[in-house]
Every structure is written in C-alpha cells, then in structure tokens.
Amino acid sequence: MSDLSILPDGLDALEARLRQDLAWLELPAKSWVPPRVIDDQPVVDVVIIGAGMAGLVASAMLKRLGVANHVVLDKAPAGREGPWVTFARMRTLRSPKQLTGPAMGLPALTFRAYYEARFGREAWAALDRAPRETWMEYLIWYRKVLELPVRNGVTVDAILPREDGMLDLVCIEDGLKETIIARHAVLATGRDGLGGPFVPDIAKSIGGKFWAHTADDIDFAMLRGKRIGVIGAGASAMDNAATALEAGAARLDMFVRRKELPRINKFTGIGSQGVVHGFAGLPDEWKWRFLNYAMAQQTPPPRPSVLRVSSFPQAHLHLESPVSRLEQEGDHVIVTTPRASYPVDFLIFGTGFKIDLSNRPELAAFGPHIRLWRDRFPVPTEMPNAELEGSPDLGEAFEFLEREPGSCPTLARIHCFNFPATLSHGKLTGDIPAISEGADRLARGIVRALFVADREKHFENLQAFDTPELLGDEWADDDTKEPSEPSSERT
User: Fold this and answer.
1) Among residues 45, 75, 114, 480, which one has the fewest Cβ atoms lying within 10 Å of its Cβ?
2) Helix orientation angle between 303-310 and 235-246, rounded to the nearest 10 degrees
3) pTM (two decimals)
4) Is the pLDDT of residue 4 over 80?
C-alpha cells in the first residue's frame, strides 16, 4: 500500500477523536527553537534517518515537544519503509495485539483503536495477532494522521562534521545530490543500523547464487520444486523456511546447533515498567549480566511459526547439527554436519545481524571516534560476548560518545536510536513494546540540547518580551491620593 491517501472512511470518527484529544492536551506544543540560516541555507534542527516505526514515533515525539523544524528521510518508497512488507515473512506480528507501541499514551492512536475503526470490535476480539500487512497500513495511517514530515526516496550517503559544530548530510534523491545542514541526526535504522546481516565465513566456500540471508530479497517462486537448507532456528529462519515450503519447496532441511529449540522467552517474562525505565540506571556490570544471560538462553521462535513449518511433511529438523562444511557439486551444494551430509539446491542463512561500522559508509567520518563498550568496560572473563563488546556506548539521549574525549565533539549530535542501543538503554529502540518510551527519552534529550545551545537567544527573548499582563489601571497606589478625614461613627 503506497498511496497514503487511500484510507477507509470508517476511520473518520477515530481521526476526529484524535484531533480532539490532541487539542485538549494542547498538542503538539508550539514551535520554540530559534531558526538558523547558514550561507542562505536554512538549518534543519533534527534529521531522522529511517521512516520505519522507530523513525515515525521519534518524529511524532519531537513534534509533540515543539521541535517542528525536523525531517524524516527514507530510501524506500512510501508505504514500504521498514521490514513489514519487504523482508519480514511472518504471517503476523510476534508481539501481542494489545501492546500500545508507538501510540505515545494516546488511546485513539493505538493499533486497537485503528483496527476496531476499520473492522469492528468483534473482529478485534477474534484477532489473535496483527497481520504484518495490516500493521504496515496502521503505520501509514499513523504517519498521515499526525502529519509527519517524511521524505521518501532519499538516501543518505554521508554524515560529515562541520567546523561550526553542526552536521552535513549528503543525500541523493532522483539521482540529484543535496546537502542538508543539521544540528542533530537520529539513526532510526533498525536491526542492522550499525552493521548489516551476519553471514558466517563458511558461505565464502560456495557461489553467491546458491545462498541468501533472511534479510535479502528472495524470489521464493524460483524455489519451487527445489531442496532448501536453512541455517538457524530463530523467528526469521522459521518464517523463511515456511515461506519456501508454501512456495512449493520439495524438501526443507533446517540445521540447528543446539540440542533443542529454545522454549522460554526470558526477557518477556520479566517485562515491566521497571525494566523499561530502570535498565538504563543499572551499573554496567549488571546491564552486561542481564543481556549476556538473555542472549545465551536465546529467544524461541513463536509457536505459530514453528507449527507453520512442521505442518509440512517434507520439512526436516536437524538438532545438534552445526554446519561444518559447504561444498559445491555441480548445480547444488553439499551441507555437512557432524551427523550427516545433505544435498540442497539453495541455502538460507538465518544468522541474524552484526554490528560492523565498516558496513556503514555514511558513518565513515565518525566510525573511528565512536566509543564501543569494549573500549572502556572490562569484560568479565566468565561472560565473554563479542556482540555486546561491539555495542556502542551511548549517552542519556542515545548520543554517541567519543572514544578519545575531545577528538570529535560533533559526534554527540548523532543519536543511535536503533537496535544496537540495547546494551546502553534496554529494549527501547528495536521492538514494539517500549518504543514510545524510547522515543520520549530521545526527544527530551534533544530538546534539552537544543535549548542549552540556544540559551543566549532565549535570554534575549526573555529580556525583549514586553507584552504587559497589567495595564496600570487596575488598582491605584493609596499613597498618591489626598488624605481623607476619618469618618465619625456613633458607638
């Protein structure tokens, strides 16, 4: 769904209610940031890179707090931002339907309100989880009803520091280059926001035509009648396996290192507002302990995803089967594990994502200066974790911090509002449950920085403000009047 104007009439009443709620709350706040112009070019206060869920709610929060001079850039066409209708291949969201997600505490902005307005209360009661396409339609509506300043089809090729302390964002739109001067930049770039898909080195032993990552654009129709191998058993691996089977794969083999599939989602079990707001306040060693343990236990794939695969008789699960060798034989590949060897025609890596700043050319000017956890945190010898070691060490507003203090002050103007922020802030940036709380923390930090930076101008405005509250005729000074004789009273 790419046309943002195509929305069902049943939403009219909901939109009217939302407008009333916003008016009663006096939202959005009035714009208050003093405008800046450099070399006849207006400066943008905040540029958000990425118009998926995180980028939209970050924009909505900034607008709510009166930072009107911001823009959201996304390389995708309108309606195809984020993973929901691109490389996400689950039938429904994995989160429970009632989570309020990006609604920012506004009942009329929730997915439930949207769904009931479109399909009715009975349909909501019957719904198990949100279909991913419907969730995308909700985000399109969210963007429309809040009038968020999104520009599609724009790629950010580079973020560069300026001598005046601001940022140059070198962008490409329709083949034309444009440089935006910005005071702050927000990376709302999702799971791979500081790296990209992780593929083990063993993939180099076979030709690229034989494999893909779950985040790639895969032509599943071409897999009909083929033997498919899937490495990994996480949610994305399961969803891609199911999609291949539903497209007509003749056989599917899933290779898993563990003795059994993980069954318990540990972090969901302790989910609370305490975790949402308290995680960032933990001592570093406790942040590490929480996430290292959760990662070691792993997140189980959703039960519906597993059943979606296991319902096919041609699907085969191989536990305790790490792939030790890949070898091309003519038009297929031999996958070798400690248990056996298996011929496959195509291999899908469900191996997740990896933080690797060298994969983000737009950050090349800043990459050497970005402080990672390994740069200052003594990793516990009993809890080594390469993924956590490579996580960015972030400030209170998700801003990058310098590896060497004073080496790149402009770095603090770039905010990492994507999945790799988890070790510093908890799960506020990559998933639905606490995305509004994360965006609120981000926006308030940027507001604070903007106000402090403009303190001289705000003080000038304070001094110059001269609209009187009293006109001088409300009450006269008694001492300026002629004294009057006291009146005599009979007692």
Assistant:
1) 480
2) 30
3) 0.94
4) no
Q: 41-42 and 37-38: which strand pairing? A: antiparallel
Residue count of the chain: 491
Strands 353-355 and 414-416: unpaired
pLDDT at residue number 67: 98
Q: CB within 8 A of 288, min separation 6: which ones?
A: 373, 377, 379, 380, 383, 385, 388, 423
**Cis peptide bond N-terminal to 28, omega within 30:** yes
Task: For 230-267, write each residue's pLDDT tens digit.
Answer: 999 999 999 999 999 999 999 999 999 999 999 998 87
